[in-house]
Amino acid sequence: MSRETCRIQMPFSLSEQQRDSLHLLYGSLIGKEAQCLYDVFSTLSKKEQLYDLQDVQKIVHLSPTRFEYARKQLEQYNLLQTYRETIKAEYLFILQPPKEPQLFLQHDIYSRIFLEKEGSSQLDRMKLFFSKECLCTKTMVNISEPLDVSILENWTSKKEEALDKTQIHIPSNTTYPFDFNVLFKGMERVIPQRLRTRQNLERIYDLARIFGIDEKNMRRYLSLSIDPQKTKIDFEGLRNKVIAAQDLPIHSQDPYTLSPIAYLQQKQNGMPVARADKLLLEKMMVDYRLPAEVINVLIDYALKATDQKFSRSFVEKVASSWARLKIDTKEKAMEQTISYKNTKVENVPEWYADTKQTEPDEELKARIARLQEKLGETNHGEN
């Protein structure tokens, strides 16, 4: 009889939390032998080789019967998957990650078995041990020392360049004008140099071009979105202020260079754009990655096609189509709208456009005359 062999795999890295869960929680359910077997399998899996099954049993000091029992304990709690080759006596053991403590304690079955085996006192101790909640009381005051950033008061743009030499990335397909020198003029203390990182500048520029905010207004919104310690910019708060903005610049020599929100506001004779429409236009720029000038052409097309209703479903359908077609200039967008019109005309059957009326034959004329006589007699009798 050929000797049984096995391969052991562990397709993940065991975190500290998972290891704690294995020893302090799973151990009560699977037993020490199964827990030891898991640890040995974890070590042996580091070398991808074929092991003699008897040698593995000797390493864990288990008889074949106890080895099989420990293996099945691991399998029951989804810590191990076992495969057996049908042609030859070879096993494949694949370790599975333990649930993290919080998930284990919330599990409908595992938590109940743990309570049954260890009792409520031990369960409460484990819940307290793995609790992530703050243990401070209402009478406690947070006296933690905040980070002292005064050392960065004299931070200069030259130092910033030394820290991050990469220039701000402005998308090549955008024409929205925004001057950071104007934005930061006289704002050294309000918006310190340490906050002017490349990532922050790019996020500010994206908000400006999407919602059509100029440097003057962005400066006001930005100064209200910095924490008192001047350590970070609250971009979610900044975004909300920008969305609520109504004083947009809507005059330009080429209206298609306006931000889509300013362009739509211009189409509405200066009336503020609804929040839902602003979010829709933001989605078109962020999710569909359409340039502003393309979206402005789409706005024209959508308003005409939907009787000035600016339907969300219609706009998203066209935007997704243009994104797939890689329409990235207003010229391509205009050509596309023209093709829609031509397609509509071409798809109309030839007989639909034929307005020439067929002359009725003599028999049809006679039938109409007889019907008219009957209708006349009926009306006369009623009178």
Automatic annotation (TrEMBL):
Coiled-coil parts of chain: none
Superkingdom of this protein's organism: Bacteria
Listed Pfam families: DnaB_2, WHD_DnaB
Transmembrane stretches, start-end: none
Record domain DnaB/C C-terminal: where: 266-336
Replicative helicase loading/DNA remodeling protein DnaB N-terminal winged helix domain mapped to chain residues: 16-241
Family: Belongs to the DnaB/DnaD family.
Name the UniProt record assigns to this protein: Replication initiation and membrane attachment protein
Organism whose genome encodes this protein: Faecalicoccus pleomorphus
Organism classification: Bacteria, Bacillati, Bacillota, Erysipelotrichia, Erysipelotrichales
